[in-house]
Amino acid sequence: MTIFFFALVVVFAAAFAFLNGFRDASTSVALAVRNRALTPTVAVLLAGFFNFVGAGLSAALALQVSRAWVRLPPGQNGLTILAAGLVSAILWGIYTWWRGIPSSSTHALVGGLAGAGAASVAVGGNAIGGADTSLLLQVALPLLVSPVIAFAGAYLLVWPVTWAARYTPPSVVNGRSRRAQSVAAGAVAFAHGLQDGQRTAAVLVLAMLAAGLSDGGAMPAWVALLTAAMLAAGTLAGGWRISYTIGYRLMRMDPLRGSIAQLYSSVILLVGAIGLHWPISTTHTVTAAVLGSGSNQGFPATNRRLVIRILRFWVLTPMVTAAVALILGLALSPIASP
Q1: What is the pLDDT of residues 215-243, one digit of tens each?
Q2: Which helix (H) or strand (E) element contains residue 13?
């Protein structure tokens, strides 16, 4: 029975990675397509390739994430928590994609694990170790800090860049900015693979630990390959509903400000993944940077009603996924008991 639950978690983790790439393709390609820096086909192929590379390289970082994230109970109890958390995050991801709302897959997953852990305690099972710290470091702080840094930094960067280009003809500025956006799209996709690849790989490592199939000392090659392949496949499928929201509905933006938003976002994500080992939401970072760079212009360009709706979904994400995972965990508890 333990092997069955482990296989179930692997399937759900693969689906979570696919949906992650499917939804978050928009963060790297939306502005490049909107500003005609890349065609939709080329943009998606570029994002898929760099997502694959980034996710493949994230395997080494995933071991540290799995140790610092949460500690699951052994056996079927731990696997049930993972299954309920993953299903909750998947359902919320599908719903937000259908609504065209960019939201964080990481926050959805952590919220789901917290809710599933509460269900385990409610039926007399073991609690998740380190859940309080995980919620603080991976939900509360990034929810508040990373969007603020992204918004403020992108807003401020517009001034020196526009000052440096003040005597350059607009056609030249737009051409250079589009070329910069092409590079930035690949950088954001690579950073997304590094960031989000860690989460899926860490879930699979935790599943192997709970099932007694690994001691957590090494990253199996199949985990890295599965994570990278599913992220890339989801990116190639392309979630254009969210791309349309970021590129067309959220903000009117020229190529110069678009390149600033994407380049600055990629720096934050890479520093968070490699330098700080801090899980930062790609969706929150890019969306906030787009709002920051786009707000620094001489005419109103922000869809304020949409911004408020997006912020509401960001706050609801961990709460809703925790509630759904709690219900799923309670439903699974009878068949998961040894």
Answers
A1: 766 778 888 899 889 988 988 887 677 87
A2: helix 2-34
**How does 172-193 read in b/e, with b if 16+ C-beta sit within 10 Å?**
ebbeebbebbbbbbbbbbbbbb
Q: Is 227 within 8 Å of 17 (Cβ atoms)?
A: yes
> Crossing angle, helix 170-211 and helix 105-122, to 10 degrees?
20
**Both tokens of residue 21?**
């790439």
Amino acid at 126: N
Query: Would you list the domain boundaries of the chain?
Result: 2-336
Cβ-contact 195, 146 below 8 angstroms: no
Query: According to the 3-state scheme, what is the secondary structure of 118-160?
Result: HHHHHCCCCCCECHHHHHHHHHHHHHHHHHHHHHHHHHHHHHH
Token pair 């517009």: residue: 158
- Render 24-79 in DSSP notation, one character per residue: HHHHHHHHHHHTTSS-HHHHHHHHHHHHHHHHHHTHHHHHHHHHHS-BPPSTHHHH
For 278, phi and psi rounded to 5 degrees? -110, 120
Q: Shortest CA distance to 60 belongs to which of 253, 178, 220, 172?
A: 220
Burial (CB count within 10 angstroms: exposed 0-12, middle 13-18, buried 19+), residue 164: exposed
Taking the C-alpha atoms of residue 314 and residue 291, their distance in angstroms, rounded to an integer, is 15
**Percentage of the residues of the chain whose pLDDT score is greater than 90:** 20
Tell me the H-state helices in 212-303: 221-237, 240-244, 255-270, 282-295
Alpha-carbon distances, residue 13 vs 121, 212, 227, 228 (angstroms): 23, 18, 8, 12
pLDDT digits (tens, 9 = 90+) for 164-218: 988 889 889 989 999 998 888 888 888 888 888 888 888 888 888 888 877 766 7
Residues in the chain: 338
